[in-house]
Known about the structure:
Layout: H1 3-9, H2 20-36, H3 50-53, E1 61-68, E2 72-73, H4 79-85, E3 91-95, E4 102-103, E5 108-115, H5 116-147, E6 153-155, H6 165-174, E7 188-190, H7 192-196, H8 204-214, E8 220-224, H9 230-236, E9 240-244, H10 248-258, E10 263-267, H11 275-278, E11 285-287, H12 290-293, E12 300-303
Parallel strand pairs: 6-11, 7-8, 8-9, 9-10, 10-11
Antiparallel strand pairs: 1-5, 1-12, 2-4, 3-5
Helix pairs in contact: 4-5, 5-6, 8-9
Amino acid sequence: MSSALSNSLLKRLTWPDLDLVHIRQLIAMARDEDLSGLGLRKPPALSGDRSTSSLDSPPRQSLAHLVAREELVVCGLPLLSLILSAYGSTTHVQLQATDGTKLAPGDRLATLSGDSRTLLTAERVALNFIQRLSGIATQTRRYVDALGEGRTRLLDTRKTTPGYRMLEKYAVACGGGWNHRLGLFDRVMLKDNHLALLGSPDDLASAVRRARKIAPDLPVEVEVDRLDQIPPVLAAGADVILLDNFDQACLSAAIALINGRVLTEASGGITLKTLPRLAGLGLDFVSTGALVHQSSWVDIGLDWPA
């Protein structure tokens, strides 16, 4: 299979790929949830940070450090300046790490300085974004390490939080993974439910040929769950065959049958325990939604120097 096609299917979102207008909208929503009860049918009569405003303290300049409480892969640091600017006060962010960096407990991610009231008010929203995205990056790094060095690349899926897909896929990239299709728009992917609409789930060849005609600009991927489905898919000219929930013996048989004529992807039942056994089979890709939907927030604190 051509390396050009393989490379064209491999994406790693970078920060410049992301739409800052959309990200600012997400930040504004998070801010307004906190300050004015966005999402409630009956918002509160009084809004704002009632805790900080209750303090008998004049405006003063302060600084605080974002600090890792556990080993983690950091992600989302460029969000910090956008978050603080959403609160309308002059603040400054000095980054002390870069996205994708592995940090140890006690390492600083960034130092925030400015009006102490603004920093207090924005603290939770900032932590929510950074802890969530760093959790995905950290989880991804574990899976990448379990897969190990070699030709097989680890891919994410479309199992993402609505509205946060590109940020979460960016976090996967920061963790060392690769991005599968970003949406329904950038690949034809014929799965079992699509084929069921044909009335004959085994009519794979005609489905592939029609996809190639309707969307000649896109790669075509087909999901199979039996070895006998592979020959017609090969004959029809698919670009990628997704081997869904194949055990290791069947994966080996499928890879031998395909013999490099198309790209191969394994999915279903992918865990940290099974990944090392898949690494040497000759697969091009392994995909799992667990990078996002089974990740956990990491522990990051905002420390105020005495």
